[in-house]
Structures are given as structure tokens and as C-alpha cells.
Amino acid sequence: MVSLAELEREASVCTRCPLAAGRTNVVFGVGDANADLMFVGEGPGRDEDLKGEPFVGRSGHLLDRVLREELGVGRDRVYISNTVKCRPPGNRDPHPVEVASCRPYLERQIELVDPRVIVTLGNFATRLLLDSTGGIKQLRGRAYRYKPGPNADGDVMVVPTFHPSYVLRSGGVGEVMAGLRADLVRAKQYLGAPTQ
Ligand code: URA
What we know:
The chain is α/β, with parallel strands linked by helices and 196 residues long. It has eight helices and six strands, in the order αββααβαβααββαα. Uracil binds next to loops. The site of uracil has 11 residues, from loops.
């Protein structure tokens, strides 16, 4: 099996989908390669494309804040990635062909990091990892087994939550923010006893 660094090198020259043409950087992932907790967002925005790191703009600041406040950790203690690794132009939603092209990278990242819990941020990551067409409002509020099926070991849990940019659009307060916090507390429960 290739290492995460090798997979990142492979992704850095990827031309599997049209997003490759418009990117500044492939935004592969960041954090602890052996983390118990992994976050999967939608796709890089402008700040992320320029820096080559996920969640470094306003959404990222909110994610960093709730990570600190609810779990007491910084981003270096978790692993953060996205559904698509290249910026969709003008921050549009990723197209199905782009999500499908990038899917093997995410699946291999999950295999290599081997987290206990994956928090999916928003509709795209949630639908992909739960193989569902439901919306985040319906799907959040509980945990699911990642890839239930005959070949899965079934010990990775998926905890869906709102995308931080949606939380910001809602004003960063009230029900939506409370939902994000509650989902992180849920993720923490599934992490069990700290191993680090
Ligand atoms: N939104 C995402 O989904 N991912 C990022 O990396 C930044 C913003």
C-alpha cells in the first residue's frame, strides 16, 4: 500500500477531471496522518487554492474554534481533507463527475489515516460517504457506520454535520451553531478514551 505522502504526490499532478485546469494548488489534506478524528469538507475555496491547505479561510477559522472549544484540540491533532481536492471555479458546487474522479483519493486517504470517526461537513461529503441522496438536515443528529457491507470491518463511524460556511451564513449563532457543536460532542463520544 502506498503511503499518504506518496498518494499526495500522485494527487499533486492529477488531471482526472476539468478542475485541474483552473487550480493553483491541489489541496490534498492536512494534519495528523494517524489521527483518530478526520474531517471531510466539500472543496477548496480561494484561500485554500492559494495556500494548498484545506479550511484556512473564514470557514476554517470557525472549524478551528469549535475544535478547540468542544474537543480541546488544534487542527494538528486531527486530519482534514475535502471531497474534491481542486477548487471549483467561483466556489460553485462540485459536479458529479468531479466528485467521482476524486473519490478514490478520499477513499485511500481514509484507508491510510484509518480514523475512528469521520465528521462530514455538509451535503457533499455526507452524501458521498453515506452513499445517500439525503440532505444534511435529515442526516445529521446521529452516527453511521462507514461503508457497511460484506467487505467492511465496520468500525469507522461517520458523524455528519453542517458545513461551517452554512453555519457562518446562519450568523454563527443559534440552532445551526448549536447543531455543529452537538455533532462534535457526538464525534467525541465515538472517539472513546483518548489514545494520545
Ligand atoms: N470549504 C470546504 O469545503 N473546504 C475547504 O477546504 C474550505 C472551505
